[in-house]
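Thread amino acids onto this structure.
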């Protein structure tokens, strides 16, 4: 009988089945261990991503300066860093004291006093007790959320250490971006390295324009809010404008959080003023959503509102405040990677993404 057609014995079949089972179990265990490791280092990964974003902020003007001048990339980066430090110092000298005083008064005195005044006024109405019962949980929940966010950021090394780490990561990445890109590309097979370079370049380009658009919107919204609240004679307009500009970095959720203190201050003055403040904030967000936002999105990736809010909620629950802040740029990078690596390469859909002007 031909040995090649001899059936395998039951013992050899059992050994093969056991071998495959062990391989599957090993892969499953490795995935579980990897997920557990990611769970414990997610704060560090988010800090690294924050450093990447800051590096893009530094690298973009440095590249422009290097292309339009005889300066080398290194000297261009040094000039950009020194210029930013100088602008921050000048802004702090011109507006820092007034802004710091108003921000301190906003969180230490004005907000607690406004809540107390509002409660006192609501007690004169029968339905006021129900509203007061809702205000107290909101205060507690907001305090817990902020506390969890701060704890999540500072859990690994402390808040100050985290800021220093982000700064150093950003400076090293901005100084030698090609060094780290080459190291990352070498982790993939040779025939895929060029494609990975294209994906990384597209992600960097998208994040660069996303950040430029966000900074522009933050400045515009902050100025408009400050002028509007000053004209409406709402207390602490500068502090509320800074708060609105900073929270504009967080789409959808940020403007709601920024508008709540202004409406609360106005409500302690009169319901009519509060109504005007609500209309003003809604109008500003309408202009941002239907005019400024679409103009900015022409230069970057369009993020679906539902996906953006979902990513903020998920990362907020898992990580805290840092996750909420970085949810949108993480989603933007993920959209680019999924489009190029899965939709185009795997599914074969080669239609170009929306081109930037």
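Threaded sequence (357 positions):
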């Amino acid at each position: 009988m031909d040995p090649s057609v001899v059936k395998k014995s039951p013992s050899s079949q059992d050994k093969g089945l056991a071998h495959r089972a062990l391989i599957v179990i090993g892969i499953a265990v490795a995935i579980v261990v990897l997920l557990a490791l990611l769970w414990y280092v997610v704060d560090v990964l988010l800090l690294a991503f924050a450093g990447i974003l800051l590096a893009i902020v530094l690298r973009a003007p440095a590249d422009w300066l290097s292309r339009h001048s005889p300066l080398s990339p290194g000297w261009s980066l040094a000039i950009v860093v020194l210029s930013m430090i100088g602008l921050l110092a000048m802004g702090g000298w011109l507006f820092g004291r007034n802004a710091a005083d108003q921000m301190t008064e906003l969180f230490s005195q004005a907000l607690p006093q406004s809540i107390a005044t509002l409660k006192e006024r609501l007690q004169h109405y029968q339905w006021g007790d129900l509203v007061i019962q809702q205000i107290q949980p909101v205060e507690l929940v907001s305090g817990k959320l902020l506390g969890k966010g701060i704890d999540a950021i500072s859990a690994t090394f402390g808040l100050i250490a985290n800021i220093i780490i982000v700064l150093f990561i950003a400076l090293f990445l901005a100084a030698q971006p090609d060094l780290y890109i080459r190291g990352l590309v070498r982790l993939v097979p040779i025939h895929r390295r060029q494609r990975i370079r294209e994906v990384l370049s597209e992600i960097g380009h998208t994040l660069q324009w996303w950040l430029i658009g966000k900074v522009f919107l933050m400045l515009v919204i902050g100025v408009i809010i400050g002028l509007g609240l000053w004209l409406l004679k709402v207390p602490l307009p500068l502090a509320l404008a800074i708060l609105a500009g900073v929270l504009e970095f967080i789409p959808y959720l940020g403007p709601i959080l920024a508008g709540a203190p202004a409406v609360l201050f106005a409500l302690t003055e009169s319901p009519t003023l509060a109504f005007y403040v609500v209309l003003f904030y809604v109008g500003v967000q309408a202009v941002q959503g239907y005019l400024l936002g679409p103009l900015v999105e022409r230069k970057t990736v369009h993020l679906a509102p539902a996906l953006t809010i979902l990513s903020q909620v998920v990362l907020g629950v898992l990580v805290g405040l840092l996750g909420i802040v970085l949810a949108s740029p993480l989603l933007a990078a993920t959209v680019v990677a999924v489009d190029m690596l899965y939709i185009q390469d795997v599914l074969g859909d080669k239609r170009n993404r929306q081109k930037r002007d």
